[in-house]
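User: Sorry, folds how?
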Amino acid sequence: MIKGKLALVTCALTLAFTSPLFAVSDTTDARTLKLAIGPEPTEGFDPMLGWTHGSYLLLHAPLLKQNADMSWVITDGESGYQP
């Protein structure tokens, strides 16, 4: 009897902790690129540490180019993306 209850509790806890792994996520945001435009850090870039030391990876890539009229141009010519 105790083994049966223990098995039931173990199964319930396993399902409770693993169900978020199998949840269906919203994929409408999958092709969204979020940009933070601003100057480089004054201390510069350290390739050993990267741009950030937190839990989010921050990548630096010249995907955009600013024109003289302050408009933006996408510089990734290989993708053929048109805004």
About this structure: The helical segments are 2-18. The CA atoms of residues 2 and 8 lie 10 Å apart. Residues 45-83 form one domain.
